[in-house]
Amino acid sequence: MNFSLPEGWTGRTLAGLRTRLLNWFDRERRDLPWRADRDPYRIWVSEVMLQQTTVAAVVPYFTRFVTAFPTVAALAAADEQQVLRLWEGLGYYRRARHLHAAAKTLVADHAGALPDDAGVWAGLPGVGRYILGAVLSQAFDRKLPIVEANSLRVLARLFGYQGDPREGVGKEWVWGAAAAVLPATRVGDFNQALMELGALVCAPSSPKCTECPLAANCVANRAGVQEQIPPKKKPKAITEVGEVGVVIRAEGNVLLCRRPGNAARWQNMWEVPHAARGGGEDVSAAAVRVAKELTGLDVAVDAELATIRHGVTRYAITLVCVDATLVGGEFASTFYAEGRWVAPPALGDFPVSSPQRKLMTDLINPTRQPRLF
Predict the structure, then answer these.
(1) Which of 193, 228, 263 lies at the terminal end of a domain, its last residue?
(2) What is d(CA 160, CA 229) in angstroms, rounded to the nearest whole number?
């Protein structure tokens, strides 16, 4: 579906809308560390981090990341384990791996430059339509649109779009709308302003329409249907999964295993061996089985350490972690890329998933008390 302006809208209507939104942005914009300049590297890192993550969560990660890797060359030279460790907790770790791989490409093929060239950016790992538009519009004022959750909501309400702008023809429509509203200059600021308006004013529920600089033009506001646009996402069916994790100890050390690079998630990150429990399977029996299947080691199970609940896509996982002592065998795995025996104080040096970090923190805590089953 091609985008077209609502009936009665003119070029003057759009011009006024652009001016009011940019004026609002100049007054109300948040002071965020990646807005200090138009450095394409900093803009790029921030936009990759902000995908599917809130601004509040990203700020401390961004600061640490660009302190450790202040340039694309520094990022390219880094070890992937360093990159993953600094990304730890942000989730969607494929973003970090793509960012790292793209930095290596920019150094190898473009002498570390981040050029004003859409063709170069489109060929980088992890760069899709959104990142392309975000970096080039903000760093180089290229007239390219961006669409994410906040700007999508603003545009759907502003133009009164009744369909779902997240998929199918609705997705085509919203990208057309995002392109149609762009000004000739200050394109990057305008793109940011749309997102900022969605974050601060045009909220998913109870939008602050009386504070909105676009309220006079907003079709949804005039019709009183702000709460119905865009339509709510259909909830995903959640599957409950029970897992057991095994903290295998030998001579004061703990076995950490590195996931393979082709794993479904958490590629190349570290963890204690864990897997799903069978229906009705005893925790202790499951721990012995999982240790043998994943590491080739024979263990004796001691006490329960922790129960960690977390979600992955459409799964709600309950991970019961147990202490175990090595009885015999040599590490051999058809799944894990490698295994290392690590002293507990060094567990913080390895990149791990958020649920595993909860366990590592517990293991490092000297006051931890084991629990009986």
Answers:
(1) 228
(2) 7
Between CA 243 and CA 226 the distance in angstroms is 42
- Do residue 84 and residue 153 come from a single domain? yes
Q: Does residue 173 sit in helix, strand or coil?
A: helix
Q: What is the SS3 assignment for 248? A: strand
Residue 211 and residue 255 in one domain: no
Show contacts of 53-56: CB within 8 Å, 24+ apart: 53/90, 53/91, 53/92, 55/30, 55/199
Q: Is the pLDDT of residue 141 over 90?
A: yes
Are 287 and 142 in the same domain? no
Q: Is 272 exposed, middle or buried (0-12, 13-18, 19+ CB in 10 A)?
A: buried
Let me know if 340 is exposed, middle or buried by CB neighbors in 10 A (0-12, 13-18, 19+): middle
Peptide bond into 230 cis (omega under 30): yes
DSSP assignment of 316-332, as one string? EEEEEEEEEEEEE----
What is the residue type of 122? Answer: A
Same domain as 218, residue 300: no
Question: What's the domain range around 162?
Answer: 11-228
Name 316's Cβ contacts closer than 8 Å, sequence gap at least 6: 238, 239, 240, 241, 309
Whether residue 340 is contained in a domain is answered as yes
pLDDT of residue 128 exceeding 90: yes
Which residue among 47, 88, 196, 304 is the active-site one? 47
Pairing of strands 338-342, 270-271: unpaired
Q: Are 325 and 333 in contact (CB under 8 A)?
A: no
Active site residue 47: yes
Give yes or no: residues 155 and 104 share one domain. yes
Report the distance separating Cα 112 and Cα 115, nearest Å. 9
Q: What is the per-residue pLDDT across 66-112, written as a single tens digit (0 to 9) for each?
A: 999 999 999 999 999 999 999 999 989 999 999 999 999 999 999 99
| pLDDT tens readout for residues 8-49 | 899 999 999 999 999 999 999 999 999 989 999 999 999 999
